[in-house]
Amino acid sequence: MEGQDLVSLVVEIYKERWVALKTVKANRYSKVSWVTTIVLVIFHIGAIAALFNFSWTMLAITAVLYWMAIGFGIGMGYHRLLTHRSYKVPRFFEYFLAVCGTLTLEGGPIFWVATHRVHHQHSDQEGDPHSPTEGGFWAHMGWIMFGEAKHNDTQAMARYAPDLGKDGFYVWLNEYHYVPLVVLGLILLAFGGWPMVYWGIFLRVVVGLHATWLVNSATHMWGARRFMTKDQSRNNWWVAILTFGEGWHNNHHAHPTSARHGLAWYELDITWIQISFLQRLGFARNVKVAALPEADSERRAA
Ligand SMILES: [Zn+2]
Ligand SMILES: [Zn+2]
């Protein structure tokens, strides 16, 4: 074969690969989940409206609601309790945490838990619902706007969360996950008018969504890796601050059932502080905790 032919053959092969790659990418973004996208646009507009209606009272109320929704609802509830069962609490408190979780607009407990269990099963591999190997934007919010996220298919999602699918309350909450948020919105509207809704609902939900999505995007791209896990997970301090401790994501992938994610003293993990406080009160039981290998040997030496 002449040199010229070989070059054109190689060019041809690469062209084909390039077209195939572009098709895969285009296909991924070809189907828009319109309801989700429109709701997200409305919430972002409401969040911007909040910035024109500032008051310290509203900021304070919003901060408390953010802590309830992201700290209690997602960190303590959906993630460490319902997905990984890293500790136990009385059933009524479990339900309370799950209701807090719905205030984030991240979907019902069965949807969230199932999606996250699939993420742990296929982290950064084929089948991961949100991996930055398919692009940072995809991992952050593309997957929820264009992906096969089956928010409302309780039956299909319950296959990945059979423990929750058996519980009538969780099945109901999964179907009607927006109800607690609507009720909260009406209460805020009654007491503080629309500016309070812009803050306590729209702005708070938008900041919470991006903070949680950063765990899927940023902590699979930026930060240190203490453990050589099979995935690309990283420990990221600023995501940990935004999410009450969920940013210590490499620790978490290495020890998924640990209720403690920040394993070193300098890794601030507010969710862990809260769980260990409940444990000391005797309210949280069967608390699973991973220890660093060095900490283990230190303890043995002492
Ligand atoms: Zn992950
Ligand atoms: Zn997890």
Explain this structure.
This protein has 302 residues and is an all-alpha fold. The protein has one domain (31-301). It is built from 14 helices and no strands. It has helices at residues 3-28, 34-51, 56-83, 91-102, 109-121, 136-146, 154-158, 162-165, 168-175, 179-216, 237-242, 249-254, 270-280, 293-301. It is globular, with a radius of gyration of 22 Å. The N and C termini lie far apart (73 Å). The mean pLDDT is 91. The protein binds zinc ion (2 copies). Residues 119, 123, 220, 233, 249, 253 line the site of one zinc ion.
Query: From the structure provided, what is the oligomeric state, counting identical versus distinct chains?
Result: single chain
> What is the residue-mean pLDDT, rounded to a whole number?
91
Topology, number of strands: 0
Helical coverage, percent range: 55-70%
- Overall tally of domains: 1
Query: Helical region count?
Result: 14
Describe the SSE topology.
Blueprint: H1 3-28, H2 34-51, H3 56-83, H4 91-102, H5 109-121, H6 136-146, H7 154-158, H8 162-165, H9 168-175, H10 179-216, H11 237-242, H12 249-254, H13 270-280, H14 293-301
Helix pairs in contact: 2-10, 3-4, 3-5, 3-10, 3-13
The structure holds zinc ion (2 copies).
